[in-house]
Every structure is written in structure tokens, then in C-alpha cells.
Write a structure and sequence with these properties.
Blueprint lengths: L1 H6 L19 H5 L5 H17 L10 E5 L1 H12 L6 E5 L12 H7 L6 E7 L12 H14 L3 E7 L6 H14 L7
Parallel strand pairs: 1-2, 2-3, 3-4
Helix pairs in contact: 5-6
Length: 187
């Protein structure tokens, strides 16, 4: 997908860095926390190694972060805490419903100064606990998207009629990347 979009000049030349959770079973601890630990890990341990081998820009308008499920939540949290480095976010099936202490985003988006973020979200209408009053993944994604809209963020939410599966995210990935890299911010 990256190669095709770059070739067609639908996104800038991009170096993809893919990171798996550190220890088995540690995905939620590393990815669902609402703090800057993962951003610090990326910026002090992973990205310096990449920069030792490749020339990359330090312009945060040219940095994006993407993930699905807890990885989508992590992508949002990294950009939220470090907008000095990451301005573009792709979040598939964000795991806001399972964040320790509850989903902080609706209040944080409303109460904190606006950040220079462009955020693409994808959610499933039958994601985990979609018809339950607690830990409802769909409703938590909708709350985040609504807060972004009300705060005037450059964002887009795409809903698919599916559960907690990467299928819909995989289908919309090219459009998500085109959207976050678009030149006209009014699209």
C-alpha cells in the first residue's frame, strides 16, 4: 500500500517503522496507558536507530503514526502527548473502552488546548460489546470522534458494519493514508 501510494504521488516518500509489543501479554499495558511512556520509547529508543541508518525529516507535519485496536489507541496517545513530533494519526478500531481508569479522550479533547493533529478513525458498528452499556468499543470511538468534531479538529470517522476485525481497516487503509497526507485541509 505504501509503495503504491508513494509511486502514484498520493502520499510522500515514507519509511514505515513497525513495532510489536515488547513482552508477550504486555500489549494492553504498553498501548492502552494514557501517558507519554510509549512516545518516549519511540523517540529515545526506536527512532534514533532509524535515524542512524536513514535520513528523515524532523518536521512533525511529515510524521504519522498508525495502529489498530490497542495499537490504534497507542497511536492516538503518542500523538496526543507528543504533537511536537507526530501530527497525523490513523486509528483503526481504537481500544478506548479498555483504557485504565476509563476513556480520557472526550474530556481531554474538550478541556486541553487544541493540538495540531489530523486524525483518521475507523470503527466497527459491531465491535466489542457493541450492544452493552459497559466497555462498549463502538460508543467510545463515537465519543472520541464527537469530541474531536466539537473541538474543531481535522478528523474523519469511517464506520464499517463489522466486529473487531482488521478487514475493514485493511480495505480503507489506502483512503486513510490519502486523507491524512492530503494537501487541501478542507477535504
Amino acid at each position: 500500500v505504501l509503495d503504491n501510494l508513494v509511486y502514484r504521488r498520493e502520499m510522500p516518500v515514507t519509511l514505515g517503522v513497525f513495532v510489536d509489543p515488547g513482552q508477550p501479554g504486555n500489549r494492553n499495558v504498553e498501548y492502552d496507558a494514557f501517558d507519554d511512556r510509549y512516545a518516549t520509547f519511540l523517540l529515545t529508543e526506536i527512532i534514533p536507530q532509524v535515524m542512524d541508518r536513514f535520513t528523515i525529516t524532523d518536521d512533525p507535519n511529515q510524521w504519522a503514526i498508525c495502529g489498530g485496536s490497542s495499537g490504534g489507541n497507542c497511536a492516538m496517545t503518542v500523538a496526543w502527548h507528543r504533537p511536537d513530533h507526530f501530527h497525523r494519526v490513523v486509528n483503526f478500531l481504537g481500544s478506548f473502552a479498555q483504557m485504565p481508569g476509563g476513556n480520557p479522550y472526550p474530556a481531554a479533547i474538550r478541556d486541553e488546548p487544541a493540538k495540531p493533529l489530523r486524525i483518521f478513525m475507523q470503527a466497527g458498528t459491531r465491535d466489542l460489546n457493541w450492544n452493552e452499556p459497559q466497555r462498549n468499543w463502538l460508543s467510545n470511538n463515537l465519543r472520541v470522534a464527537a469530541a474531536l468534531a466539537e473541538a474543531g479538529y481535522d478528523h474523519r470517522l469511517v464506520l464499517g458494519d463489522g466486529g473487531h476485525s482488521p478487514n475493514h481497516g485493511g480495505v480503507v487503509l489506502p483512503d486513510a493514508l490519502r486523507w491524512i497526507w492530503r494537501q487541501d485541509a478542507t477535504e
